[in-house]
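Project outcomes to date are best conveyed with an example. Our students and postdoctoral researchers have been running inverse folding experiments weekly, and each run begins with a structure described purely in tokens. The record below, which covers 383 residues, was selected by the lab manager from last quarter's runs and is presented without edits.
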């Protein structure tokens, strides 16, 4: 039977090796390799650690430990251990708040085949399939970048014209990691696009153009400020970590600063700007036409990288648009009454299916829905 401390240390070792994009040197001799592969494949390392740390009752740990010790563990068995997902739901318009424990042990969300990340190099488009690793090369044969599954890493020493821009398109239902030629790492959320130079120029700013949502870990370079541009807002940084969101369905373009310092500007000039400190959110309000700043819990805004779906006083229309992006589904709402409601809710795409989310919402506001499928899409009609 596994000891709690042993399992937890193994998972921490696994987590660290993943973050370093390398392989752990520590042999997992006590651990069932198939189970380990399942945890990695489903992106459940953090959830596994959190669950184990929460099992303070000896009887609870003993029950889990017995399951870990079973031979020939089937893939996805860990999702059975992660049986319960806590869902916090609040219906703001009615002033009600609920805590509901939902059984999330059903089938994991699936992504339709053919739903690929697409890289546009200017000379053609390339599909970034999850299971493939390959080089992105010039006609000369020189390697510009390497693609590893859900990550694309650009070469810092490529002999290429710095005016050549590439575009990366992330479809609904996917997330993706991009590492630029200067080492800046960008996590891209579902339904996002980014335009960037294959190689940054030796002089001037490092500029990228973003639609959607992305988390930036910017490599510090005081001589070459890093600028994130959208249609309405630009963010200027030297070296920092922040989340940027500019989906068209949202009433705001937001920047949440986790570390460092950034300047926000509307209009393209940084002569008049707003500076954020860590733990602050700067938002361009599309209806008011102003930038507003407030302190926030940054975890609520960066949790999407761990699969979290967080709604904060969100309209039902915006909520459905988010579910369409996250789960790669099409949702039509014919219920006018629910359109008037705002929700505060928290789910996890790695545990709850879109049907599970809708079932949870139905507990608060009664409605019906019907799911149909064709070869390419899952369609949902709410009534």
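After processing, the design step wrote out the following sequence:
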């Amino acid at each position: 039977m596994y000891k709690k401390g042993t399992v937890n240390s193994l998972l921490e070792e696994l987590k660290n090796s993943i973050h370093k994009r390398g392989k752990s040197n520590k042999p997992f001799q006590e651990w069932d390799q198939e189970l380990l592969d399942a945890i990695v494949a489903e992106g459940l390392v953090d959830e596994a650690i959190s669950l184990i740390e929460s099992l303070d009752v000896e009887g609870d740990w003993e029950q889990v430990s017995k399951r870990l010790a079973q031979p020939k563990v089937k893939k996805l068995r860990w999702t059975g251990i992660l049986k319960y997902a806590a869902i916090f739901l609040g219906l703001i318009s009615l002033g009600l708040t609920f805590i509901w424990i939902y059984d999330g042990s059903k089938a994991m969300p699936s992504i339709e085949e053919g739903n690929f990340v697409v890289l546009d190099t200017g000379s053609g488009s390339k599909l970034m399939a999850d299971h493939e690793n390959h080089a992105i090369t010039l006609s000369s044969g020189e390697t510009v970048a390497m693609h590893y599954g859900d990550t694309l890493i650009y070469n810092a020493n490529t002999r290429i014209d710095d005016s050549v821009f590439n575009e990366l398109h992330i479809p609904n239902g996917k997330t993706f990691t991009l590492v630029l030629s200067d080492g800046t790492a960008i996590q891209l959320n579902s339904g996002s696009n980014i335009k960037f130079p294959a190689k940054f120029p030796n002089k001037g700013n490092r500029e990228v153009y973003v639609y959607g949502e992305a988390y930036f870990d910017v490599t510090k370079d005081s001589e070459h400020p890093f600028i994130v541009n959208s249609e309405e807002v630009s963010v200027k940084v030297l070296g920092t970590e922040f989340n940027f969101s500019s989906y068209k369905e949202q009433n705001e373009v937001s920047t949440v600063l986790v570390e460092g310092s950034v300047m926000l500007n509307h209009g393209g000039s940084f002569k008049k700007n707003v500076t954020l400190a860590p733990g602050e959110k700067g938002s361009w309000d599309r209806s008011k036409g102003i930038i507003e700043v407030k302190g926030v819990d940054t975890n609520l805004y960066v949790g999407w990288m761990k699969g979290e779906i967080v709604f904060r006083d969100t309209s039902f229309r915006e909520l459905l648009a988010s579910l369409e992006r996250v789960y790669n589904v099409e949702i039509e709402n014919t219920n006018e009454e629910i359109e008037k409601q705002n929700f505060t809710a928290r789910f996890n795409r790695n545990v709850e299916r879109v049907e599970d989310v809708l079932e949870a919402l139905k507990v608060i506001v009664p409605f019906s829905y019907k799911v149909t499928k064709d070869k390419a899409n899952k369609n949902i009609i709410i009534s």
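The CA atoms of residues 283 and 292 lie 5 Å apart. Residues 4-19 form the longest helix (16 residues). The training component of this project remains on track.
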